[in-house]
């Protein structure tokens, strides 16, 4: 009988490798579609198994220890081998590699994926995160991508499946504290992400609203963080309807000015000529999910 392997917990190794690669707990959490705390707990579990520390420094600037750096090299090499072997497996032809922004994946796509898996069990969907704007390199590593777009770039084919609506959202308690006055709403701290600072000006242009400079702005690395900050009462975030529809419906967030239709649509983008056995079926499924979205609250002027 072959000897039993003595391996660390594989989920903990995966969390450690993601943190080591990104250098930040939040980035690792978004890649793995878990919370920041879950990544931290997995790394602590791995430390207990190994018997030595993997990180050092203040909580806001954690860095790998010397022993952790050596472990990272071994773990990364092992994961690279596994990824390479899986890519050559017979099932690879049925894998669909999709790139999209992390917040869209967490808040819109993943909650709906069980329906796609049930309808198309033969297609294995692999998600890859887009950090910032989509570029040719990111699209080259995926079969398709989901993003807000206006015009198809040269060499791309787009399948629009959902209209783009955006509007300012705020915690209901904070909205009540403002006396539900829209004038006061526009003077609240504005929340946005560092990768999409033009969100407010884009909305104002579409809504035909003069937008004065904000007295206070708060910027976040990830859009999901900006939405959580809005829910916590830290200010007003500019949000796509698709990502906050559930929060508006449950009363977790309020949309005092409704949602304004923007130019362009949320679309599935693929390189022209890209042929994949499951891509057309996935595009058809997306169209159905987009059509099932409820209409957003009508836009109003402050």
Can you offer a commentary on this structure?
- Helices cover 44% and strands 20% of the residues.
- The longest helix has 22 residues, at 66-87.
- It contains twelve helices and ten strands.
- It has two domains: 10-87, Orthogonal Bundle (Arc Repressor Mutant, subunit A); 96-302, D-Maltodextrin-Binding Protein, domain 2, CATH 3.40.190.290.
- Strands 4-3-5-10-6-9-7-8 form an eight-stranded mixed beta sheet, sandwiched between helices. The chain has a two-stranded antiparallel ribbon with strand order 1-2.
- α1 (10-22) packs across α2 (25-32).
- Mean pLDDT is 85; it is low at 88-93.
What is the compact description of this entry?
The protein is of the alpha/beta class and 302 residues long.
| Cα end-to-end separation | 74 Å
The averaged pLDDT comes out at: 85
Number of strands: 10
The helix-and-strand class reads alpha/beta
Keywords:
two-stranded antiparallel sheet; single chain; 2 domains; eight-stranded mixed β-sheet; Arc Repressor Mutant, subunit A; 12 helices; 10 strands; alpha/beta; 302 residues; D-Maltodextrin-Binding Protein, domain 2
